[in-house]
Fold:
Amino acid sequence: MSVFTDETRERAREIIARYPADRSRSALLPLLHLVQAEEGYVSPAGVTFCAEVLGLNKAQVGAVATFYTMYKRKPTGDFLVSVCTNTMCNVLGGQEVYDTLSEHLGVGHDETTADGTITLEHAECLAACDYGPVMTVNYDFFDGVDASTAVGVVDELRAGGRPMPTRGARLCTLKEMAVQLAGFADEREGAVADGGPGEPTLRGLRLAQEHGVSVPGFDPNTPIRSKAEADKAAAEAKAKAEAAKPAPVEASAAPVKGGDGASAPTGAAGVGEPAKPAEATGPAKPADASGSTTRDVKAPDDKSPQVRTAETRQPDAGTAVPDAPGTKVPTDGTGTAPEAGDARSAEAAGVAANAPAGDGKTAGDEAGAQERNLTEAKAGTDADGAGPADANETGAQK
Structure:
């Protein structure tokens, strides 16, 4: 394992301290950015480092590091140039921008130039459709680019310059950006003073101002209450609601005598009125319970629902559950399931008796062929002495 600097280890402890002691695993994402800030990518040593400081195994860390595209698994250039080639930007020329840069730099997707300056990638979406076609350099936006302006940006980067993004702060290297993504401020002087909002963003604000659109009752100066203040306000509101509830009406303790001198029940039936006799209820009939002609039984717990359904729907299953939920076992009218041969004959007869309407054709062989196949399969051989498998195949060919 490579030795990370003392500064990285100190920052790792600071990141972990942001989370509750029993939730330290939540620090994994910023920690991965932190190790990427030192090595330029998440190396095997970086995975091991994160696993050790969080008490995880390397497989758990690696699963996260390979899921998110912002974590690079091989050395990356100082500047990650991402070109959006998704639908909107592609229609506006995004693919042409990417193809031009790829040819100009001599690299393809997720490849780095020989001088280690530029890593090129095409992005599925950069969430800036109203600025398309767009590309980002270390996640800072260059809006409305074309092939010529994109080439100019990468050439300036390779020459040591720092072109100004359309929106956002001034450019920094990928390692410097990773430090910020880990949760630490950009320490460059005046770094956050540059840039500004884009015109499409301001357009919505101007329209709202022109038409007087605003959030009802919104006061930007309203202070945000602390948790203690919010809990206190909630408790006061609950107490006020409890006090506003009407007092419950106490029922009379003395029983009301009925006509025969017996105590009459009070409540929904009314005082002095005889209680209505309860409707006679009895055990539900088996047919009412599930619509089956057999007794309702509990399906065995050691079988999956798929297995129980298959067994009860298969007439030839001798071990079928009599009545699994939502299924029925066919019977012959006496309450017993048909034998295997009877079931096959009944199925073949049903197919023969239900000819398709119009010019439709039955799925599979005609009924006569089906009956012949079933008979030959049951006998175990056909006229030529073939086995059961051969009999089925021979019957299908006939």
In short: The mean pLDDT is 75. The chain is about 40% helix and 5% strand.
